[in-house]
Structures are given as C-alpha cells and as structure tokens.
Task: inverse folding
C-alpha cells in the first residue's frame, strides 16, 4: 500500500545518489515539483531517464544532479534547445553528462519490457539509422517464426519512477487522465514509485479514459498542488506556454541560470 | 525568423509560401502523423482550408485532434480535449504507426541529404564531441520507416541541404535505389521535400532529391546556391501557385494565436 507523505519525505526516502530515476510526463503532468525537491535535497550522480527531457531536466542537469541521461528527444517543445543540456554535452558544465539515446518508440518499448518483467522488447525501428552504433541497448534480432530481422531494445528497469497525477484517494489509489504518456509503464517499471498529485480526495469518481494505479503498485503518494507547472494538469490548469518561452533566455546563460536556481528553487519550501 | 525573402511576393513571405505549399500536399480524408513546428502549422492550415477531414495524429497519443488554435507542443491540452481518442505513447507507436496504418508522416529536419536522409541529432563529425547538440530522434525514425509516405518541410540552405548528413536519425533512401527494400523499411519514404524556395522530389530512378517546382520569384540559381550538392533540376520544372487570400488569412490567424486561445 502506498504511504501518503509529504514530497520532502518521499524524495528523502525513495531517491538516493546514483539511482536510475525517471520523472515521466509526455508534455502533460510533468512532475516538476518533484524534480525541484530532488535539486533541493542535493542528489548527485543520478541516471535520469525520460522520453522528452524538457525544462525540469534542463534545470536538474544544470544543478548538477545528473551523471547520465537516457532519452529520445531533448528540447524545449515549440521553443528551441535545452541550453543547460547542450552546455553539459558540449562543454561539460557543470560536469560531464553521459548520454544514451533512443527513439520514442524504442524508449516506450523499453518501459513496456520492464513493466512486463521481460529482458527486452521487439519493434520495427532504428534500422538504417546511426543510433544503434552509439547505443548498446539496441540490437538486431531475428524473428524465430519468419526469419525477419527486427530490433530488440533492452528493458529499462528503474530504481525510482516518478509521475504526477490529478488525484489520489487517502489509501493511495491514483487516478490520471488526458494524455497518459508512459505514466503507467513508468510506475510498473520501477522498484520504487512516487506519484505526486494535485489533490488527495475522499473518493475517486469515474473519468473517461482514466488510468488507475492501485495503491499497492505505488510506494509513496505526495500532494503537490500545481506540481506539474509550467506543464499542465488537465481539468486543473493549462500549460503555461509563456513560461516555456521565458525559460529560453534564462537557460542560455550560466549566471542567469544560477541566479534563477538560487532564487526560485533553493529556497525553503520553494517549488519553482 | 523569416527564411530567404526570395520567394516572398508583394503580399507574402517565403515562409508563408512554404507552409501553404506543404498544407496543399496533404490530401483530405487521410491520416497524418504530425511533428511539431512547421509540420504542425501546415497540417492545421490544411485542415482549415481544403482538408477538413484530415486526421491529425500527434505522438502524444492524440488521434484525430482538432485543435481550435495552433498548439505549441505535441501534447497541449487542446489536442487531447479535441481528439477522437487519446492513447498511451507505447500504443500510438506500436498499434497505430508500426503496422502502416498512417498514410503520411510529416517531418522537419535540421539537415537533409541528397537521398532524403534526415539528421536531427548532432552537427559535426564526432557524435561524442558534437559541434551542435540537437534535440534528437523523437518519433521520427519510426515515422520515416512506417508511414506509407513521408513529406519533409524544411527551410533550404547550403547548411541544411548537405551532400551527406552528419548523423542518420531517420532514413530516407539510404545510399540510393534499393536501400529501403534491403533494410526492410515498409513505407515508400520521402515523396516530397517542401522548402521556402520550392519543392524537391526523389528521382524515380536514382532516388536523388530533384528540384521539381519553384515558388514564385525564385530562380534555379538561388535553389542551387542553397543546396550543398549539385542539385538536379527536373526537365518538367513547375511553378507553385501563389498563396490565395484565404490561405494567407487562415495561416496568419493560426500564427497569431500560436499556443493560446485567440
């Protein structure tokens, strides 16, 4: 059964230096508050995993939390580059960042394999591209039935899976809807799972297309209202597109970024 | 940023001509896997002009999205709220894209080469020490492999149109005829590359991207100067129809309201 705890307690208990951690969210329901709590608690040497590392990963990389990034698309959607990510890859600032690079289809299938308890997943993908030459977790595989050459991607087992959801009840059952991304797979692929939620409610009523994660699949639930901002939580608040645009000039400059970090994140109880 | 002013007429810019030409290439009633940025703008223009039944599919799992304004990301709330159905990311790639259900893949590029291979990963010869680190693959490699056809929209310059891409993120025609078949890629590959100067199509025999259309006001010399290989020109070189007033008005309304409710 999930424990319903504070975000600070959840991160302290579940996320350790050196862990492989995914904070997932495909544009929607990005666990930004949890990322900031990880920065505040000074975690180091994390292997960060996500299909679409966007500005919260840019912030975690710039703050020095990450040793390695496993990803498929690293950008500020609709705006441009992630400049802290680029600075880390191109110039090793604030430290070198190892990368392991995939396609979305490959990453999604790696989570599916881990959630399914399989060592790998099979897909039609990567063939003819330069990705397999640089990514050891992609290999060709021969279909035992047809002899066709397909692609295998290694299961992506996580130490910690972190997602944001609209709601949980007091027993820690989690409900999320709208764009559901790889939220379910992230929780089921992880040894320990943290779900931050907009609110803890007495009862979960029906929502069309909702994903429900029963309490016993989640380790900790923490209330973090607004915890996905500047991304969005459908039914609660909209995506703050201006904040994504505003991130660009801050992230381009190391000093501007450092000042932003100390003013907006490294403050007691700070969340953005 | 506006592209070369070369294709701009008295009343439109080269970028507007590019978006209009790309929108026109999408057929009504087909399904289109849409990348963010220029492809999304053109696809939404098509749905508002000649192709009201165009099915827009975004990699966020929103199938049949009908956004009332231009989304800034592939996962804006307006996509989920207006979609016929919303599926998970594993599902959109495994059940919808992979079997070849989607007619058109609509992609952008940072670099594209003479065989239509696309690079969105790194600029520079050394992957581990890149000159420029780009966002990466996203959904593109499998879109390029599995959609029945691919349309690329990209501003034309000698920096972007290179003899050989620094990194093959998404396969066009590989190193030439027969490569897609040899690799087992099931879609046809890039059938149109639409730029701010004109339109390129693969030569049926050599698979080499060949200039088949110029936008109004652009010369062959300008297109050649903006191409990093010796650009072949079709003997049947045509001219794009200038944007209509309706197309321009619709496009500008879309751009004016990008990422927010108008």
Result:
């Amino acid at each position: 059964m999930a424990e319903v705890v504070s975000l600070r307690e959840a991160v302290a208990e579940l996320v350790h230096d050196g862990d492989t951690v995914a904070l997932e969210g495909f544009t929607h329901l990005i666990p930004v508050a949890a990322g900031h709590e990880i920065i505040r608690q000074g975690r180091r040497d994390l292997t960060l995993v996500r299909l679409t590392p966007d500005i919260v990963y840019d912030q975690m990389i710039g703050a020095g939390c990450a040793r390695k990034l496993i990803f498929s698309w690293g950008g500020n959607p609709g705006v441009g580059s992630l400049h802290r990510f680029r600075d880390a890859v191109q110039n090793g600032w604030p430290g070198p960042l190892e990368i392991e690079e995939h396609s979305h289809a490959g990453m999604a299938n790696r989570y599916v394999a881990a959630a399914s308890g399989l060592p790998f997943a099979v897909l039609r993908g990567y063939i003819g591209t330069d990705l397999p030459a640089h990514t050891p977790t992609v290999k060709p595989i021969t279909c035992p039935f047809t002899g066709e050459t397909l692609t295998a991607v290694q299961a992506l087992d996580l130490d910690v899976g972190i997602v944001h959801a609209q709601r949980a009840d007091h027993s820690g059952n989690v409900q999320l809807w709208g764009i559901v991304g790889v939220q379910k797979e992230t929780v089921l692929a992880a040894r320990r799972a943290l779900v931050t939620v907009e609110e803890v409610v007495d009862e979960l009523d029906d929502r069309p297309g909702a994903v429900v994660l029963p309490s016993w699949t989640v380790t900790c639930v923490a209330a973090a209202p607004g915890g996905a901002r500047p991304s969005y939580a459908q039914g609660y608040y909209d995506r703050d597109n201006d904040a994504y645009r505003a991130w660009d000039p801050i992230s381009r400059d190391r000093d501007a970024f450092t000042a932003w970090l100390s003013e907006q994140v490294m403050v007691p109880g700070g969340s953005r | 940023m506006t592209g070369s002013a070369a294709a701009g007429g008295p009343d439109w810019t080269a970028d507007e001509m590019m978006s209009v030409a790309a929108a026109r290439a999408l057929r009504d009633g087909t399904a289109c896997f849409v990348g963010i940025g220029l492809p999304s703008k053109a696809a939404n223009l098509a749905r508002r002009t000649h192709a009201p039944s165009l099915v827009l599919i975004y990699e966020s799992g929103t199938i049949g999205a009908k956004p009332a304004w231009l989304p800034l990301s592939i996962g804006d709330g307006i996509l989920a709220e207006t979609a016929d159905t919303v599926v998970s990311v594993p599902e959109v790639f495994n059940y919808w894209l992979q079997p070849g259900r989607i007619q058109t893949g609509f992609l952008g590029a940072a670099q594209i080469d003479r065989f239509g291979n696309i690079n969105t990963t790194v600029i520079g010869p050394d992957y581990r020490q890149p000159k420029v680190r780009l966002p990466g693959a996203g959904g593109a490699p499998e879109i390029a492999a599995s959609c029945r056809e691919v349309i690329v929209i990209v501003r034309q310059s000698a920096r972007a149109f290179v003899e050989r891409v620094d990194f093959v993120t998404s396969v066009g025609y590989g190193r030439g005829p027969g490569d897609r078949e040899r690799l087992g890629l099931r879609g046809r590959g890039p059938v149109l590359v639409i730029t701010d100067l004109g339109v390129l199509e693969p030569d049926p025999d050599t698979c080499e991207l060949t200039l088949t259309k110029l936008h109004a006001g652009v010369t062959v010399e300008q297109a050649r100067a903006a191409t990093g290989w010796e650009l072949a020109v079709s003997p049947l070189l045509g001219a794009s129809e200038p944007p209509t007033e309706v197309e321009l008005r619709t496009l500008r309304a879309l751009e004016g309201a990008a990422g927010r409710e108008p």
Summary: The longest helix of chain B spans residues 245-256. Chain B has one domain: 10-27+84-254. Chain B touches chain A through 56 residues (CB under 8 Å). Helices of chain B lie at 14-24, 38-48, 77-82, 89-97, 140-146, 179-183, 220-225, 245-256.
